[in-house]
Amino acid sequence: MNVPFLIAKRYFFSKKKRNIISIISNIAMIGVAVGSMALIIVLSVFNGLEDLIRKIYSSFDPDLKITIVEGKAFETDTEFMNRIRRMPGVAVVSEVIEDNALLRYNDRQMVVKIKGVSENFFQQNDIDTSIVEGDYHLIKDDTYYALVGRGVQFQLSIKPGSQFVPMQFLYPRNTKFNPMNPEGAFNSIPILPGGVFAIERQYDDAYVFVPLNYAAELLEYGRKRTALEIKVEDGYRIEQVKQALQKLLGEKFRIQNSDEQHTSLLRAVKVEKLFVFVTFAFILFIASLNIFFSLSMLVIDKKKDIAILASMGATATTIRNIFLMEGALVAFIGAAYGLSMGMLICNLQQTFGVISMGMATSLVEAYPIKMEIQDFVFTGVAIVVITLLVSIRPARKAAAMSVTENI
C-alpha cells in the first residue's frame, strides 16, 4: 500500500480543502494543461515543416549526390562511370553539368542556373509530375528543348512549345577578351522552350534544365561534370551505399544524401525547435509556480495532520512524499488534459487542415503537422523535473515541522 499517495489523493479530492488553496491548485492545473498542449502543437508543427522541406526537395534532389571537394567540376570517363554503375545498390547514375548563364528571350534577359542532365535524369525524381505547361522531354526528333521554371517563364514571358522564338544562352568563352569583338567572348547557342515546371520558388525562379550535350557544348565542359546524381536501388540502405561509394572514390569526392544537401536549412529548423522547447518549458515552469504556492498553503493548513502522522510513527520521508505526490497529482492531471487536447488539435489539423498557411505553395495549403512520440516523452520529462523543482521545498518544510508545536 502506498500510504503517501493515498493521503495525497485524499487531500487533492477533499471537499473540505480551503477555497483559496483549491483555486490556486486549479489555476496550476490549467496552466500546466495549456502549456503542455501548446508545446505539443508547436513541436508537431516544426516536425511537419521539416517533413514538408524534405517533400519539396525530394522532387528535385537525388538519393545521393557526388561532387568534387576542391574546385567546381571533375573529369569523367567510361571506366570511372562504369565503376560507379557496378557498385551494388546503385540503380541510376545521372550526369550533371550546372552553372550560371545569361538567358535571353526576345528583348528580356536574366541570369539563371542552367542544369544539363543526361537522358536518365527523370528516372530518379518526380520533376516530370511537376510540369504545368508543355512536356518534360529534353530531346525530341533530334531537337534540343529546355525545361524552364515557372518563375523564369513569368520573368521572361516565355511561350513553351513555340518553334519560332528560341531562347538564347550566353556563357563566357575560355579565351582572352577581344574589345573589337565583345560578342565573340561569349558562347551562344539557341534552344527551344519545351515545358514549364513548378516545384518550389527557390527552383522555379532560377533553374532551366537542358540536355547534357547542349550544356557541355555551351559551357565548354567536355567530359567534365559538376555532379553525379544517384538513385539507390530498392532494398539497399542509402547510408550503406554512400559509405561504399566514399570508400571507392576516396576523399577527393563529397557524397551527400538528401538531408546533407540542405544541412543548413534542416539544422536551422532543428535549432528553432530546440529554442521553442526551452521557451515553452520555461513558460511551464512559471505556470507551475502556482503548485509551489498551493502546496505551501496546504502545508500550513494541514499542520495538525502532519503532527498526528508524525506522532503515529510516520517518518520525515513519508511526510515529504505526501506533498511531493500532491504536487505530482496537480501537474500530471493538468499535463494529461493538455497532452490529450494537443493530440486532438493536431489530429484535427492533420485531417481537416483547419489552419491555412496563408501562402501559395504547390504542395500544401494548411499548416503541416506531424506528431512524434519523443515530443510527448520530452514534454513529460520536463513536467516531472519542473514538478520536483517546485514541490520539493514545501515538502521539506512539511517534513521538518515540530510535532509538539502543532499537535
UniProtKB/TrEMBL annotation:
Membrane spanning stretches: 20-46, 274-299, 319-339, 375-392
Classification via Pfam families: FtsX (PF02687), MacB_PCD (PF12704)
A GO cellular component entry from the record: plasma membrane protein complex
Main location: membrane
Entry keyword set: Cell membrane, Membrane, Transmembrane, Transmembrane helix
Membrane topology: Multi-pass membrane protein
GO biological process, alphabetically ordered: lipoprotein localization to outer membrane
Location of the ABC3 transporter permease C-terminal domain: 278-402
Domain MacB-like periplasmic core: 27-247
Compartments it resides in: Cell membrane
Keyword Transmembrane helix: yes
Family: Belongs to the ABC-4 integral membrane protein family. LolC/E subfamily.
Protein name: FtsX-like permease family protein
